[in-house]
Design brief:
alpha/beta, Rossmann fold, 2 domains, seven-stranded mixed β-sheet, 13 strands, binds uridine-5'-diphosphate
Amino acid sequence: MLQPVTVGTKPLSDYTHICGKDMVEEIRSLAEPLKGKRVVHVSATAFGGGVSEILYTLVPLMRDVGLAAEWQVIYGREEFFNATKVLHNALQGAADDLSPDQWNVWWRYNEMNARELPDGWDICLVHDPQPAALFALAPQKAAGWIWRCHIDLSTPNPETLAQFLPQVQDYPQTVFHLPQFVPEGMHGKVNVVPPAIDPLAPKNMALSREEAAYVCAQLGIDPERPLLCQVSRFDPWKDPLGVIDAYRIVKASHPSVQLALVGSMASDDPEGWDFFNATTEHAEGDPDIHILSNFNNVGAIEVNAFQAHADVVIQKSTREGFGLTVSEAIWKGRPVVAGNVGGIGLQIEDGVTGWLVSSVEQCAERCAALLADPSLGATVGKRGKEYVRSHFLTPRYLRDYLRIFGEMGL
Ligand code: UDP
């Protein structure tokens, strides 16, 4: 019932010229004693959002260094994803808790998946809240268990957390992006490790200025005019409505500016369509606002082109676990203006590797300043890229996981 996900192959050696020989050697020596270990990643979806983005890279690299790594997606129907979306939002601080019925649905699907999960794993690595009860329900299926939290748990709805915590607090190992996301009462070993982006994936590989402009032009952007862009799921926490408001303020001083809101629909995000419609409505038919998604044929290369071509990349989140899009844009040397929340602060030091903002007005002011003086963005973009190189590329993330695996004594 769980679906194995087919991933391609990625040789670690391809990353040597980007991350350096020392990193690659460290990874190989950490991997040596783990050769042949059976590791399964379990997540809620194979498409859309940061977790799937990461696993398409991490799983092939784990295989390349000798682990028998797999990725399986849990079974769920609409009622389950409706419940898990409420769970996700409540854990990030929304006022609505799950109804008793929704908790029941969540639990029932976890039971089904726990039953169906094959056994014999050395490590089962469970991603995010959706399948979090697997360990409590079927601990015998793996020798070692890790819960990987990708969301911002710093200000959770207390009722929701109280119900949820017993399902995760006994995992022998947990991994969070930031210390402030770790809830009180975790019994196992807590690791703080931020995620990373794959510099060689189609999403992030180098495109020339001309190629990026050419791809954007095919999607309706005028390459001669300035472009602001946000790449994000259509989700209230990503604040696309606030981005439109900021764009309108910028438009007053830069009438030729365009805005692209590029957002994929994740299969585990039933709220996405409602919010997509709300965003379209908010744009009020402005022909310079381009709202695009995977349903307009926007895939990894197109996202790459938008991030590489935009004069300013915005990530105006009001809650953010990490925000891979921030590192993605910085890696392309772009000036990034982003909400001062969650994991974004790890990636952006204000005025050094990008800019942090806390309101629509601040966001607009910063974007307008960058359009007025592109040299400002160029310097920060270059510095940002080096920062991402040393902190947020996949080999570093792989190394950190191998360290954790090694410490589990399996
Ligand atoms: N993404 C994409 N197409 C889109 C919107 C998002 O490929 O139209 C990708 C984006 O490039 C990033 C991931 O989805 O790699 C989103 O991860 P992030 O951590 O920023 O946010 P999450 O969706 O996990 O909250």
